[in-house]
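Example record used in the benchmark description.
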Amino acid sequence: MFALVAVLSLSGCETTYYSAMEKVGIHKRDILVDRIDEARDAQQQGQQQFKDALEEFRAVTEYQGGDLAELYDRLNAEYKDSMSAAENISDRIESVENVAEALFDEWESELDQYSSANLRRDSAQKLKDTKSRYKTLMSTMRRAERSIDPVMNTLRDNVLYLKHNLNARAVNALKSELRSVDHNVQALVAAMSRAIEESDRFIETLR
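Model output (structure tokens):
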């Protein structure tokens, strides 16, 4: 069953995937919690990766002689790892959105099944409150995601520049970029910290 579920998930058949999961007792709310957990973990890992890239960039600017090509290789490797981390974060956020939309659609459609007006009203209010908290969560996540672009753009520019100018003058040029890279990474880490905290708060309301 779990092998089947994995295949269905990879194929993008989200509706079929949710149905298969429900058959084994795992509902959309559970999947949403798991995916928010995964997005939070991706952001935590991303924070560390971007910090590592910053340290490698700083190491290049502190070059005092030796094999500059080796420093470039290390910086380029950090840039590629950062790119993978950024893609993983975006994918995880997208997966949260997919299941949240399915959950809210299902919740909305099932309100008409109530025969008790009081229970229907209470459920409708809970749906409204959950949607509001979710909107705050996604806004925070997307804001953190957007903070990745300035970091990646600056890293890419400087990696490319160093690639074609492996000399001391290139290092001096990169030194002037360090403050900008540092600022962008710090802003990114702070934005992701806020998203991580918001994720924890949202998960607590679901549990």
